[in-house]
Design brief:
It is built from 16 helices and 31 strands. By secondary structure, it is of the alpha/beta class. The strands form seven sheets. A 13-stranded mixed sheet has the order 2-1-10-9-11-12-13-14-15-20-19-17-16, with helices on both faces. Strands 4-3-5-6 form a four-stranded parallel sheet, with helices on both faces. A four-stranded antiparallel sheet has the order 23-24-31-27. The radius of gyration is 25 Å and the shape is globular.
Length: about 575
């Protein structure tokens, strides 16, 4: 083993040295000290090696979060194998597709995912339960001092992490040790993780966000608290019971926490929390401020990143402050492109805008990144020509960089709407609409249009106590197309993106097709699945987990069974023959 090379198991010796008798992992009533944790990893690694697992073999792991899961990730890396976490939410067909891609030598499951094992009993050489070897590890006294003898897989690949699949089947992103370590160091430096932290694993360890922050906390020698999966009640109980100081979240999780606390009255109770990192989408200003009220001592940051970049590219302190030009949602009075600010890049991250247009001397275009954080390749694909010339990875997002070095997102390249010869970026309009006090969630998408190529619509969820109408100019807490148009003008949204609009409840809206992006971004509306949207004037269509049109029913039948959702979900349709978008 070349000990000068990066390896995620290098943190184990310091954990055993600095926290030998202090808790490192907590799962319910099960607690392991630093010595016990490191011994568990090493003894499990020995079992894997003795069983015949070889350097470069892939080990697929399908399980809910636990201390055992973290130990398996490290033990697999220790013997030079490659971990491929599978999403426990997947269907059997999605699991089959991932297994066919990575061809694992071993499948590891817990009781929750246990039924999957029988389906692949004959096609995968080794099978194991997640709890394998742990009782033995605790009984065995740790060697003093603990000696590490880990190895690396070919190309130093340690992880195959699957993308979310927004462009089709999930791809397997091959990530090496260096990428994971530099991302951990960035989080330690920017978020401020340290050995005094008690970190709650709220994100699943099958996602890059959960893995990256978990490894950062290992390197910081913090204590880890595990719950099987995110549930608002269990998260808040774990925070109280363990004096949790840090956790990560996504907007949907935070909305669930706020909703639960709103029903039970928990404002100001969680004073132990010092650091919250948000990812997978920006928090609205009202939610960010509500978070600060509930976690009064917490530093709140938001991160922008992707699996192919091994997690976070940029970080931004929250909440947004109106007088802070570095972090506010920008006013369009200066005619800059707009969008959503996601902060500055981490020290090791290089960003570039591949220019596609210039707005008032400001280049906008595809966001590229390069550095040690970039993935090695897509597993199973020819890596020739990757990354692009110069080492750049195209994120697939569009944006621009301001004079202070902040990155602004305009949306996905594939989500860009071409209407009347103009480009409309959904996120730019969503950023404006989401600031309206009566809007709880918004998604802007394009639908086919014979004249303008694409027409632009917005799907809006109205907040409780607000009503749709607006006929009475003296009434309060009302929304309408005309009121929203006026609001967008006040926010300096350019005229070509406003136009004239009509809004109606979904059952009465004659939409012939809907952009698939709506399914993947449904969390911004705060709706679960199936998500019901109008497809014609006579029927509604339900979307299944894969985003496919799964069912058709007469409008009246759907109204009877999903009345609550339909009361909240409205759609704005731009009148044909007029440029711009309806807001």
């Amino acid at each position: 083993m070349g000990y000068s090379k990066a390896h995620i198991c290098q943190c184990l010796s310091r954990i055993a040295t600095i926290r030998p008798d202090s808790p490192v992992t907590i799962y319910g009533n099960r607690l392991k000290t630093g010595n016990e944790f490191v011994t568990s990893v090493i003894s499990l690694a020995k079992e894997l090696s003795d069983s015949g697992l070889e350097r470069g073999d892939v080990v697929a792991i399908a399980a809910l979060n636990s201390d055992y899961y973290l130990e398996w990730l490290l033990a697999v890396a220790y013997v030079g194998a490659i971990a491929a976490p599978l999403n426990y939410r997947w269907s059997l067909e999605e699991v089959r597709s991932a297994i066919e891609l990575v061809q694992p030598a071993m499948l590891v499951v817990d009781n929750y995912c246990g039924p999957w094992a029988a389906k692949f009993q004959k096609t995968i050489k080794f099978h194991a339960n997640l709890a394998t070897n742990n009782n033995y590890a605790i009984r065995t006294p740790p060697p003093k001092p603990i000696e590490l003898d880990f190895i690396q897989a070919p190309e130093s690949i340690v992880l195959i992490c699957f993308t979310s699949g927004t462009t089709g089947k999930p791809k397997g992103v091959a990530i090496d040790h260096t990428a994971l370590i530099v991302q951990s160091l960035a989080k330690i430096a920017i978020v401020g993780y340290n050995e005094d932290d008690v970190y709650l694993h709220t994100a699943p360890l099958c996602h890059i966000g959960g893995i990256s922050s978990g490894l950062a906390m290992l390197m910081a020698r913090a204590c880890h608290v595990f719950i099987p999966k995110f549930e608002a009640k269990s998260v808040l109980q774990a925070i109280n019971q363990n004096n949790v100081t840090s956790f990560i979240t996504v907007p949907t999780m935070m909305a669930d926490l706020l909703s639960f606390l709103g029903k039970t009255g928990g404002e100001g109770r969680f004073k132990s929390v010092k650091k919250i990192l948000n990812g997978a989408g920006s928090l609205s200003d009202p939610i960010a401020r509500a978070v600060i009220n509930i976690f009064p001592h917490a530093k709140l940051l938001s991160a922008y990143g992707m699996t192919e970049a091994s997690s976070s590219l940029t970080f931004m302190p929250l909440p947004l402050r109106k007088n802070d030009d570095s972090y506010t949602i920008i006013s369009h009075s200066d005619n800059r492109p707009g969008g959503t600010c996601v902060g500055k890049p981490a020290p090791h991250v290089e960003l570039q805008i591949r220019e596609k247009a210039v707005i008032n001397s400001c280049p906008i275009g595809a966001i590229l990144t390069r550095g040690p954080h970039v993935m090695t390749k897509y597993w199973g694909e020819n890596s020739t020509g990757f990354p692009n010339k110069g080492g750049w990875l195209n994120t697939g997002d569009m944006g621009w960089i301001d004079e202070k070095g902040n990155l602004w997102l305009l949306g996905r390249e594939k989500d860009r709407i071409k209407t009347g010869g103009e480009n409309v970026f959904p996120q730019e309009v969503e950023a404006i609409l989401s600031r309206h006090p009566g809007i709880a969630g918004v998604v802007v998408v394009g639908i086919p249009d014979d004249r303008f190529t694409e027409a632009v619509i917005a799907c809006v969820r109205v907040k409780e106590k607000w009503s749709w109408g607006g006929d009475d100019p003296h009434a309060t807490l009302q929304l309408s197309s005309s009121l929203l148009r006026d609001y967008c003008k006040q926010q300096n949204l350019s005229g070509m993106k406003i136009g004239q609009a009509e809004m109606s409840l979904a059952p009465r809206l004659p939409v012939e097709a809907l952009h698939p992006t709506l399914w993947h971004r449904r969390a911004r509306l705060g709706l679960g699945h199936p998500l019901y949207v109008a497809r014609s004037s006579h029927e509604l269509v339900g979307l299944d987990k894969a985003g496919q049109w799964a069912m058709k029913c007469p409008v009246q039948a759907i109204i009877r069974t999903t009345e609550a959702k339909l009361d909240q979900l409205t759609m704005i349709e731009r009148k044909r023959g007029l440029r711009g978008i309806t807001d």
